Structure formats: C-alpha cells, structure tokens
Amino acid sequence: MTDSPAFAPVEPVSPTRRLRQRIGYQLAVMDLGGRGLALIGGLILLAWISSGIYKVQPDEQGIVLRFGRWQQTAESGLHYHLPYPVETVLLPKITQVNQLQLGTTTSVQSAASNGARDKQMLTGDENIVEADCTVFWRIKDARLYLFKISDPERSVKLAAESALREVIGRTPIQSVMSDKRAQIADETRDLLQQLLDREQAGILVTQVQLQRVDPPPQVIDAFNDVQRARADQERARNEAEAYANDVIPRARGDAARITQEAEAYQAQVGNLAEGEAKRFLSVYNSYVQSKDVTAWRLYMESMDEVLKKASKVIIDSSGKGMSGVVPYMPLSEPGKPLQKDARP
C-alpha cells in the first residue's frame, strides 16, 4: 500500500492583500495600470480637499477647531477650513431661544425631598415665599458658550436662582406679591446677565417671567387672612381720605364765604356810618352858618317824611294865604287811586 501525498498548509489572506488584489484586478480589466492609480489618488485627494468647504446659516456661527483647539469664528456665508482631521467646524444655533423653568421638579422623589425647599426664598421683611419663574436665553458668543462652561443649562439655572433670591431678598413681601412683579423680573434679568458675563458664559438672557409667588402651603390660609385684613385697612383708609377730601374743601369754602360776607358787611356798615357822619357834619356846618334857615329846612324835611304817608290832610284855613284853597274829599278809599266808570 502506497502512502498518500502530503498537502501543504494554506496561508490565510489578509484583508489588505485581498483589497490590493481586487484593485489590481479592476485596473487590469480597465487597462489603466499605474496611470489609473494616479487618477484615482487625485480624485480622492480632490474630494478630501473639497470636504473643507462649509456653509454657515444666518442663525448659526461657525466655530473652526484645529486639532480640537479654537482657531476662528465664522459668520454666516460660505467658508473653507482645512479638511478633517486637521480642522473641524461646529455650527451652534445662536438665534434659537432656550427656555428654562425655575422652581419645577423633574421627579417625585426630588419633589418630595428638595422641591419645596429649593423654591422657598426669604423676602426683605423676613417672610418666606415660594417663587417660580421662566428664563429665556440664547447664545451670544458661540466660542465662549462652547469652551468656557461645561454645562450651559445648569450654569444658567444656578445663576438664575442666585439672582432671583438676591432680588427677592431686598424686596418686601407685599411688593413681591402685588405691584412690583415686573420690576423684580427686570432686576433679576439684569443681575443674571451680569453674573453670566462675569463668568464669560457667552449667553444672552432675553427675558425673565415671574410666574408664581406664594407663601408656603402650611401658612397660606393665615397669610390670606392677613392679606384680607390689610385690604380692609387700605379700603377704610381710602374711604376716610375720600371723605376728608370731600368735607375739608367744602368747609374751607364755607369759611372763606363767611369771611368774605363778614368783610363785606364790615365795609358796608363802615361806609354807611362814615356817610351818616359826613351828612351830619354838613348839616351842622350849615346850621352854624344859618341857624333859622337850616332849622326851618330840617323841620320841613321832617314833616314831609312824617306826613307823606298819612291818609288824612288837615288844612288850617286861618293861616295866611289859605283863603283860596278849596277843600276836596276823594270818593275812593284812602290810599287807592280813583277808578273810572266802565261804560259799555
């Protein structure tokens, strides 16, 4: 019995060698040879170089990184950077407005443990309130935003809580819950922007909305009673001020009218007395100059004043010059004029 021939072991073909064999076969089929390799290499090089062309949209900023380090910031338009892996480009949205809620919790466990305590703040008059607000922000400088802070949303949240606590901490509770909510929101926005600029966060705070400011649930009923009592006090004060504003002007007007009437009466009486005094002095001077004439004139004036209202006239016929006077008795009643007879 003869021995069977020995078989040589088969060596495994590496993937690189297999790819090289396949490329060589394709080139041989297309009859390109070395010139084909150069053409393919040129096309690959051209594609690699052209991969550095990029476009920045109007709502973006282009951040060019060279080996992971910031190189430049490109505005909107068509630009070029060295191809990968030398340079890469990041295109963050700088006009997109992000929204952050303060005072809300994301899980039941956190709400039960730290949710209420995180929302509680101390006011300027040492009262405790719970405040919720919403912060709207966007990217102002993409380079600072990407490389100066590691967690932008958490940084904004911490800075916003600090700013809100500081503003509420110097404001009385009555102002916080009533007429100064918009002012508190504006002050919080300005202070938050200052904190972020100090940290070079590259973030612009566009708006802060103060949504809810209430006392803790454990004391809200008592606080509402106090608020109602203060409202009643304010209403009573307003009513009293309205009554005072109504009564006091009228009283002042009456006092001014009485004063003016008294001054007018004083002037009238004074003028009358002065006139009577002057008339008496005039009569006295006339009497001194001509006693008989003045005395007779005074007598006649007095008699005229007395007799002009009398209904009877007595004539002394024995007097001088009285013989030609004919007595006449009117037929009508004394004091009434005669009426003519009415004829048809």
Automatic annotation (TrEMBL):
InterPro entries: Band7/mec-2_domain, Band_7, Band_7/SPFH_dom_sf, HflK. HflC and HflK may interact to form a multimeric complex. It comes from Pseudomonas frederiksbergensis. It is found in: Membrane. The keyword Membrane applies. Belongs to the band 7/mec-2 family. HflK subfamily. It is a single-pass membrane protein. HflC and HflK could encode or regulate a protease. Keywords: Membrane, Transmembrane, Transmembrane helix. Residues 51-227 form the Band domain. This is Protein HflK. GO terms for cellular component: membrane. Signal peptide: none annotated. The keyword Cell membrane does not apply.
